[in-house]
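Hello,

Our lab assistant flagged a job as stuck in the queue for most of the afternoon. It eventually completed. Since we weren't sure the result was trustworthy after the delay, we are filing this so someone can double-check. Below is the sequence as submitted and the structure that was eventually returned. Let us know if re-running is recommended.
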Amino acid sequence: MKNYLAPLFVCFIVCTSFSHPSNQDQEKSAILEKIHWIIERSDMNKVRSAFKEICDENHFPGLVSGLKDGTYKGASPVDDFGYRHEVTFEMKGGKMISIDYDEIHKDGHGKQHDEAYCKQMLQSGTTPAIAYPSYENQMLEKQDFNRIDAVSGASYSDYRLRLAILYAILNSGQL
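-- returned structure --
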């Protein structure tokens, strides 16, 4: 019976080492979660300063050029309103060539195509259907979320997109 335990133990160690993120990845994920809650629960001045400070301290890039070719996906934890902030982008030749961002409710609908939500948000001067494509186009043009200009009425979404991009880079193992 003992002869069977050693290989099982080795298999357990090997399998669990591949299925669990490293301590460094866990630390980075915890930092991104901290940023998430700052974005969700702070005024915009605090969001701006804390986001920059935390990214600088941890050497989190805003510039995506130079990432390996492939598809990157990232999402924040669910916010107080039941939305995850999700991004998918493709890199080719060291350049972001496509990007899709939306805030997806836990019931599956996205803000960008939610006509009732967009109609309600138009009172603030913009809608997700206007702001998200603007942010996407700016990322494709500038390749750096630090150079994105906020769309009036959608400043929090700007930082939610930035955070989702960081989650995508973390998921790729390049953060």
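-- support follow-up --
The delay was a queue issue, not a problem with the job. The result is valid. The beta strands are 70-75, 83-92, 95-105. The CA atoms of residues 69 and 93 lie 6 Å apart.
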